[in-house]
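hey so u asked for the seq, here:
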Amino acid sequence: MDKKFCGPMRPVGWLALFVAIFVANMPGAQSQERFEVSRHGAASEQTIILIPGLGSPGDVWAETAVGLGDSADTHIISVAGFGGVPAAQTAGEGDFIAPLVTELADYIDAHQLEDVTLVGHSLGAQISLQLAATRPEAITSVLVIDSAPFFARLFNPTVTPEQAAAYGQSMGSQMAVLPREQYLGFTRQGLAVQSMTQEGQARVYGYMEASDQGSVARAMAEVAGGDFRPVLPGVRADVTVLVAWAEPSPMTAADLLAVYAEQYAGLAGATIKIVDGARHFIMFDQSDVFMAELQIVLRAAEQ
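ran it, structure tokens below
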């Protein structure tokens, strides 16, 4: 197999309205149409694919790659159009998420990857679950970071899939044509829900600045309007879901846990855990907790 192993990546940052946004150029990356890959660690070790969220770069996993070191064969994804990675040639055409899942599945096939652990944040987790359903023989486990398959219902418990789809398309269309400063203004307004710290918020904002607005808008439309719950019964991998919670919050941790249990009801055996003291970017705010949970997932996958 053609393998490339790179050194540590530089961190960056982003965010938008309700969901998270992130991505940046990575040295020595392998190029596909819709994403780039930077590979780290040892080829003989456990395979991990890290997928960032809406607008984020692969750089969001910089500390994770360092923490894993040579104990894993780590593949870090950067999505085209996010955080400085050039937009795909097909930008503006058709679906955003489904072709990306297909290309990632082709990547797994081409590199003959087996017993893979997927780690996905936000949009990256939605992609991870679809990928696990598409390649059940190759994916052993999935670690979901602060993501839900039916995003719109987190904000409106009675919204229908049809209503959500219409809302998502409207949001994406409006976001695509916003003047740049207004677009970035929405990012600044929402930074507090992305990370607990000023450093984390700065990284997130940097991701947004470096992202292609049209690509982010297209992806946001599908995140905000998509209902990916029908995919869940096809996932055979072990799934752990980490959910961010911190004071002040409009609901208790127990209530939030119940909301996510309903979201993942179609996924038999999913483990859902609340991470206290964290906002959307759990790996920034509670890095030790995140790495400990990742190690639990990896140890279970080896058995």
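Confidence is low (pLDDT under 50) at residues 1-31. Residues 30-302 form a domain with the Rossmann fold fold (CATH 3.40.50.1820).
lmk if thats what u needed
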